[in-house]
Design a protein that fits this description.
The structure is a homodimer. Chain A is α+β, with helices and mostly antiparallel strands. Chain A is 34% helix and 28% strand. Chain A folds into 3 domains: 271 residues, Bira Bifunctional Protein, Domain 2 (BirA Bifunctional Protein, domain 2, 2-Layer Sandwich); 109 residues, 3-Layer(aba) Sandwich (Rossmann fold), CATH 3.40.50; 79 residues, C-terminal domain of ProRS (Translation Initiation Factor IF3). The first copy, chain A, has an 11-stranded mixed sheet with strand order 3-7-8-14-11-10-9-24-27-23-22, with helices on both faces. In chain A, strands 18-15-19-20-21 form a 5-stranded mixed sheet, with helices on both faces.
């Protein structure tokens, strides 16, 4: 991030106040807003369109691996949640509890809750226990395995400090739940779904990620192993962008999910669960956004192109609109990665604010069309990944012919820019003093500016991990999968270690 | 419905006990089941696949009319619901109330609700008031109108007596909400969305419907006018299959949704809302199902074709599976109404039960493939809309070539069969005695068997409507839109009337 040197559409700019920039850029891009309900967001059409495309991508990748969608109850009886001790412990502090099932006039004439429930219901924070109840009914024999289920749903975790997309009391997500006959098969599935999250992030969201194992203290409550994909945001903090859990037989035992083997013995199944959420939108904003707004990767943008007809005199209107609409029709017939190009036409009479609105909303391509362009059979295009002033006139035919190539080029340039940022702010560090310096804010007024990701050794002790978190607000993001074994000594306590881990501050 | 004369897959058959047949057919078709949470259902993969296709159809039709999707909070503050008096009155008796936001150890060591909320939150039964809160922020000028929003979501209405798909405490639906500058435009939108519900029902679900206005007593709480589409089930009862409400300025006043006109005066907007739900699946079951299971219209079936390889000797396996898989690949490349044909391969070694499983699940076409079929380059097909024994051998080439034609033929035959049933059980009745007879059960043990739909006159008085409901359990389903004005006298009280209405028993 370079210091602000010119007028930008978003104030403050990233370098001046990154957290506030994040709030302002969401507002300016019209993605979402806070609702009147504590901690809950409203996802506006532009933001929801983005989520629809992310859902479409993931849903299709899941189904390719044999997963089918289903739907399970919103409410979980308290006794179900209590079946797995670590699980309920992990979620008890943030549960929305339903206690009554109607309203009636109270003594002061106002409506008050009535019809108390005999057992409180918890609004699902995640669905392992309620889905486990169904799996126990559905699975009887080895022939029923593997069982591969996903659900698209809303979940509620009562967060005290919320931030749109990153941490809200209600959010939208998918949660996959699978059951297998063997440990090996369940572990393979855990890894396969992590790969799909990595593929979604890198190929569609243009967001490079590191795949790895969480340390025991960062595991999902009740899991044997948690895998995650971690991305670097532009303030060099990590964003966990999808997790895949190997649950061993913990939830099978809690919900009594057993099957009869071919040899007719009764065994517990092995389960997995894996989830990703509207948090990914926060990742897209913080990975690609600049001081003029958000920048959407073309493959997941709700629309790839906006046409901006320029009409200075009333008599020009018909010709300009006709040219615009015929171009829109032509573009919509183009196939872009299996789907039609989506086109917006913005003919609002609001002057230059119109182009800036679309820059702030991050649409990949802006196309201006005026009488001179029509005469020349050309269009005047601006790419969102370039400077707003850097526009060029090209022939209409060339534009149509090269459209998907240009979009792919934007998609790739966004990924490469993000990868370059991560590389520039990742270091292998073996010296404790240097490690502490790396994570120490350069400026006390901007505690968010620091070094980035450190690949350093860890002894494996939770005490050491806790000490680092306490001293520096730095956590082990993951023990990377794709890394060589390497002997070394713990960055904090000097005990022996066999592998580097990824240390970072995180959202 | 003819009396059961032979062995059928579902017991009891429709004629013997229609309500119980409904429960059994859902179980046998593997669509859904009751959950361990009171009144909530689990939608299983086959049922959810059906819902995914229904969503895809409606979502696309909505978007064609300019509607965009968004997402609003699950929770509604009690004070919001109270803003519209009739509205809260209508939903107070069936609200799930969230009262606490965490759990903690109680005096007896068990977990109890803690962190009481200062204002109770209601789990949305519908979202007029919470969406109205956003609309009030989003709309300032006539330039912001019309605002056309839809949301796909779960809602909760605490029903005391539940039946899967027809009436459950939680269900999935879409709710559209629009705001307009004029009354006329809002009324037009109300009607347009009703037409889309009718189109979805008739063209996709193969379910003929009658479009009409609800009487004042059957209106949505807070609406000025409620339109609905009504279908006849095979027990001659009506199923309301989608409603579209003209809300006037009631909710605009409740939520203070105003706009500045071009002449710079401040006016309330005019709003509409419209919804349809997983109840439609209940409609599909009861419209098309027979004594062997459900029958799915090809356009919305999760899969159109199941291939059943027949392997009697191990040495036949490779050849049969190769032929089956190559046929599956060929079928999947066929475009059926804009989407690829979906194919299942069922190679379970369970004998004849396999074919019956797919009959019960209602898949449109079953295709058996054995060594003799391979030698003859043929397939042996069974249509779900025909008798299970009525199967035929045709050449593989012909099957592939004619597949979409056959599917369209099944789609049409289902619609025509349903339309014929409705015609056969609909009467114009002008005599009170005859009207009472029409709705009187033929057999006291089977109160569900009666005449069907009666087109008869109504004076317009709520007292008369209430009397009919009380005496016969018959309600006015709608005042049909597509009917001529005709002078007559009320079927119950003989007062003058200008139009026939549709009387029926209803779900």
């Amino acid at each position: 991030m370079s210091k602000q040197s010119k007028q930008t559409a978003i104030s403050p700019c990233r370098a001046d106040d990154y957290p506030e920039w994040y709030q302002q850029v969401i507002k300016a891009s019209d993605l979402a807003e806070r609702s009147s309900v504590r901690g809950c967001m409203v996802i506006k059409p532009w933001g929801y369109g983005l989520w629809e495309n992310i859902m479409r991508v993931m849903d299709s990748l899941f189904k390719t691996t044999g997963v089918k969608n289903a739907y399970f109850p919103l409410f979980i009886p308290l006794s179900f949640l209590e079946k797995e001790a670590e699980h309920v412990e992990g979620f008890a502090k943030e549960c929305a509890v339903v206690s009554h099932h109607r309203l009636e006039k109270g003594p002061e004439g106002n409506l008050v809750p009535a019809g108390p429930l005999t057992e409180p219901l918890i609004v699902r924070p995640t669905s392992e226990t309620i889905i486990g109840d169904s799996f126990a009914k559905w699975i009887t024999s080895y022939r029923d395995l593997p069982l591969l289920i996903n659900q698209w749903a809303n979940v509620v975790r009562w967060e005290m400090r919320t931030r749109i997309f990153l941490r809200t009391s209600e959010f939208l997500w998918q949660e996959g739940h699978t059951a297998h006959a063997t440990r090996e098969e369940a572990e393979e599935r855990t890894r396969l779904m992590l790969d799909i999250y990595a593929q979604t992030a890198e190929e569609y969201l243009a967001m490079p990620v590191i795949k790895g194992h969480k340390t025991p203290s960062e595991r999902f409550p009740g899991a044997v192993d948690t895998l995650s994909v971690e991305a670097m945001m532009q303030d060099y903090k990590a964003l966990q962008s999808g997790t895949s859990h190997f649950l061993g037989q913990n939830f099978a035992k809690a919900s009594q999910i057993t099957y009869q083997t071919a040899a007719e013995s009764e065994e517990y199944v092995w389960t997995t669960s894996w989830g990703s959420s509207t948090r990914l939108i926060g990742g897209v904003i913080m990975t690609h956004g600049d001081d003029n707004g958000i920048i959407l990767p073309p493959k997941i943008a709700p629309s790839q192109v906006v046409l901006l007809p320029i009409i200075r005199k009333p008599k020009e209107r018909d010709a300009v609109m006709h040219y615009t609409e015929s171009l829109a029709q032509e573009l919509k017939s183009i196939n872009y990665h299996g789907h039609a190009i989506q086109v917006e036409i913005d003919n609002r009479d609001i002057g230059g604010a119109r182009g800036w609105d679309w820059i702030k909303k991050g649409i990949p391509l802006r196309v201006e069309i005026g009488p001179r362009d029509i005469d020349a059979e050309s269009v005047y295009i601006g790419r969102r990944d370039k400077d707003p002033k850097d526009r060029q006139s090209i022939s209409r035919n060339q534009f149509v012919r090269e459209l998907t190539t240009v979009l792919d080029d934007i998609q790739i340039s966004l990924f490469e820019r993000a990868l370059a940022l991560r590389k520039a702010h990742t270091q292998h560090i073996d010296d404790k003093r240097q490690f502490i310096d790396f994570f120490t804010p350069r400026n006390q007024e901007k505690p968010e500016i620091h070094g980035g990701f450190a690949y350093s050794h860890w002894c494996g002790a939770e005490t050491c991990e806790a000490q680092i978190k306490n001293d520096l607000k730095v956590t082990i993001r993951c023990i990377p999968i794709e890394a060589d074994q390497e002997k070394g000594t713990c960055i904090y306590c000097n005990q022996p270690s066999t592998q580097r881990v990824v240390y970072a501050k995180a959202y």
